[in-house]
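Hi P.,

Sorry for the delay on this. The queue was packed all week, but I finally got your sequence through. Input first:
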Amino acid sequence: MIAPLLAGLAAAAAVGGCWEGLAIVEQAAPTRVLARAVAPLRLAGRAGREPTAPERRRLAVLGALALLAAGWMAAGAAAGVALGACAPAVVGHLLAARRRRWRRGLADGVPAVARALADALTGGHSVRGGLAEVAHADAVPGPAGLELCAAARALALGRPTDDVLEALRRRAADPAWDTLVAAIGLQRHAGGDLAALLRSVAASAEHARRVESDARGLTAQARATARMVGGLPFVGLALAELVAPGTLGALLGDPRSRLLVAAALVVGGGGAAVVARLARTEPR
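Then the structure:
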């Protein structure tokens, strides 16, 4: 008599617990939680922000779970664990790629920044007022515009102009920004027509970006071919596993095959690194 009563009470408590769990999940909004976890990756490409150590750990855990699930479903538990172990390296590579993309966008904005600042100086603004005016007018799109807005906020708080420009130059880490900041500093200390100098800097930066773009275009086919050739063995292994499941396991079951696969991976990875280094068009 007591056992059915206890079972009924347990069932009622379980129903209440399920409702409470659903309410917690709804309030937690998993999509928002996931968006917060991935936000450092987005900010690295949008604002060039370096993620903190806890953010890196969260990204690594999220990447490990995703790679573990993908590898497990595609080739079994061993492949899933191996892929999951590569998550920190993959996350680091993604963050570095996003920051490189941000720096490229920041460098591409130098001509627009120089011309907009030259127009502001021609209109009667000082360098400090011109930077604030260009930022508030949204005259420069992309990462360069966001950096100018941050610089304008720092100027509004009373930070010295030279310190703001130096911080901007260090964040950009690009020769074009070095030239722009050096031109402003030279005029502030030696005088001269800064507006004309800035327009000259804009023209020079545009020419340099055009040359880099031409270099990337000329080497695009060679880089694509090298990546395709390097990826063919992996594609072949994947197709063989799909056509005849168990091929990869049999291949890795023989010590001699494992040795050959390991040697192929080392040689292929080294070749990919050499090709990537030879095909770089950005200044070292």
